[in-house]
From TrEMBL:
Name recorded for this polypeptide: Histidine--tRNA ligase
Source organism: Gemella bergeri ATCC 700627
Sequence ranges assigned to domain Aminoacyl-transfer RNA synthetases class-II family profile in this UniProt record: 21-325
GO cellular component, one term: cytoplasm
Keyword Ubl conjugation: no
Higher taxonomy: Bacteria, Bacillati, Bacillota, Bacilli, Bacillales
Compartments it resides in: Cytoplasm
Domain of life, per lineage: Bacteria
Protein family (similarity comment): Belongs to the class-II aminoacyl-tRNA synthetase family.
UniProt keyword Methyltransferase present: no
An MF annotation (GO) of this entry: ATP binding
UniProt keyword annotations, A-Z: Aminoacyl-tRNA synthetase, ATP-binding, Cytoplasm, Ligase, Nucleotide-binding, Protein biosynthesis
Catalytic activity: tRNA(His) + L-histidine + ATP = L-histidyl-tRNA(His) + AMP + diphosphate + H(+)
Amino acid sequence: MVITMPRGTQDILPEESKKWQYIENKLREISNNFCYEEIRTPMFESTELFSRGVGDTTDIVQKEMYTFLDKGNRSITLRPEGTAGTVRSYIENKLFAKTIQPQKLYYVGPMFRYERKQKGRYRQFVQYGVEVIGDESPKIDAEVISLAYNIYKMFGIENIKVSINSLGNPEERQAYNEALIKHFEPRIHEFDEDCNNRLYKNPMRILDCKVDADHELVKTAPKLLEYLGEESKQYFAEVLKHLDNLGVKYEVDHNLVRGLDYYTHTAFEIMIDNPNVELKTLCGGGRYNGLIKLLEGPEDKKGIGFALSIERLLLALESENIELPIEETIDVFIVSMGEKAGTYGVKLTNDLRLAGFKVQNDYFDKKMKTQMKIADRYNAKFSIIVGESELETAEVIIKNMENFEQENIKQENIISYLEMKLRGEQ
Ligand code: HAM
């Protein structure tokens, strides 16, 4: 039987991986400009990190984790997200003691969730995420949201919507949760099984229910805003003020609750505003002030971050008909005729590659016409043609593949000639 890739995964073939590289480079570039540094944490962690960090009642922990016992009988989980691992590492490596605070970190890497397969939803997907851990300030919240927003703008995706909410502090949420329980309890039997399970464990998630989203009780549920204290309201107002200042367009959505337990205060999502796209959420994040303490780190350290998947970014680009400016050319293709010239061609290819040019040659001593065709297939900017007679005069012919002009160049001048032509260097 032919072995195929596991459900919910994908092979990224060379044509596609060029796009991935382009996107990842751009993400690294913008992270660098915003002064975020890369952190690489393991792809698997102790299961307890996620059950404690992400939350026992979340869909991720209850249904979606790839969990197994290793040969030492330890429960291990393939990371379903990057925040818990980053915070674990922040604590374990005492990043809170670094002189530069807050620590501004980013990551790019595969995450794993056993989810129902759907366009834009994979079981292995790549998240780019940032986490700012240390002290809190509305300016940091706004910076993080602005970074996420501007990533989509940078790729030319204009039809996006930022939804933002404040989830308050744990006490405020507690009071709100109690109000929600009171609200839903008498008629919870009208909801699906998931919502019934959520009623006492995590009632806010009933508002997030996909099945019963239009239920009258969801619409008439108490609003979290009414349960926020002055300080939380003030903090949220400050975040919005800074977002206005930064030109980030957003909508306050008081029903926005995120699917992970660690959020406090600012929470946000970025959606694509395109009717042809089924899975709208491109990015999600928020503040998680309790998580550092929950994972036994310093009590006063707080964090905020977001993550987006490159898979959904690519879908957004596709749905907006945006072509990435990917260069599909090579600098030089080397065409050789005859055995001696062929050997010289192999060496010249190697030398030019080591001098920093992108170069290919023919391996199979094909006819000149065929070699020129291959040069075209590679979209070569120049071809270098060498035969027995050129070898005798220690020259090559360099042909500009765009305007077909060609010149005889001394072998020792090839590199300087190409530098001048391709890089404008004298
Ligand atoms: P999340 O909302 O679970 O948050 O995921 C963030 C983003 O990852 C989603 O908006 C979506 O773009 C992408 N994503 C999630 N699941 C899949 C999937 N199965 N296939 C493709 N893409 C997917 C988190 O993961 C938090 N750790 C974000 C965060 C960072 N909050 C604070 N810091």
